[in-house]
Backbone:
């Protein structure tokens, strides 16, 4: 009886691992969707209100749509940015991205954006945002393609691995 409970626990743990990995991919897709919306909103606010970057990031950080974008919280949080008020926004942006849980490819795109944003006139910033929005869209589409393949694969491998271990232990 105890052996069967142990086997059931192993099967459940392996299946849970597969489900967890598939769920993690879903979370990354949501982050990319929020980042794409974030880039669109940046372009809209720069185009129509001409907001300086710091005000723009404070405004967007306060919106509920972006509450899970932790780099915005870090960028605008006075405690985590203590002593950074005199530091250029580019350095604060990079520091905020280092502390975020954003997927690596999205982080790379945003780091490159941070090096260029705010260095040109309004039209130049809009062009830069459009360029990085296209890069983010490409990365998002690639992740969605991977999700289609890997999500079911992870779940199946979890269940099959658990079943294999259960059979070996019987």
Residues:
């Amino acid at each position: 009886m105890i052996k069967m409970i142990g086997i059931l626990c192993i099967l459940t743990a392996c299946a849970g691992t597969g489900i967890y990995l598939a769920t993690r991919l879903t979370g990354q897709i949501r982050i990319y969707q929020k980042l794409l919306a974030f880039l669109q909103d940046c372009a809209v606010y720069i185009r129509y209100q001409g907001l300086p970057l710091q005000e723009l990031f404070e405004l967007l950080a306060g919106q509920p749509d972006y509450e899970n974008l932790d780099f915005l919280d870090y960028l605008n949080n006075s405690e985590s940015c203590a002593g950074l008020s005199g530091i250029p926004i580019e350095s604060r942006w990079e520091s905020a991205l280092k502390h975020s849980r954003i997927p690596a490819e999205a982080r790379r795109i945003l780091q490159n954006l941070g090096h260029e944003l705010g260095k040109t006139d309004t039209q130049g910033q809009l062009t830069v945002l459009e360029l990085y929005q296209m890069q983010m869209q490409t990365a998002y589409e690639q992740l969605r393609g991977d999700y289609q393949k890997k999500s079911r694969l992870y779940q199946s491998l979890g269940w099959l691995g658990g079943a294999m271990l259960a059979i070996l232990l019987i």
Remarks:
- Residues 2-49 form the longest helix (48 residues).
- The chain is about 80% helix and 0% strand.
- The CA atoms of residues 143 and 149 lie 10 Å apart.
- The two ends are 12 Å apart (CA to CA).
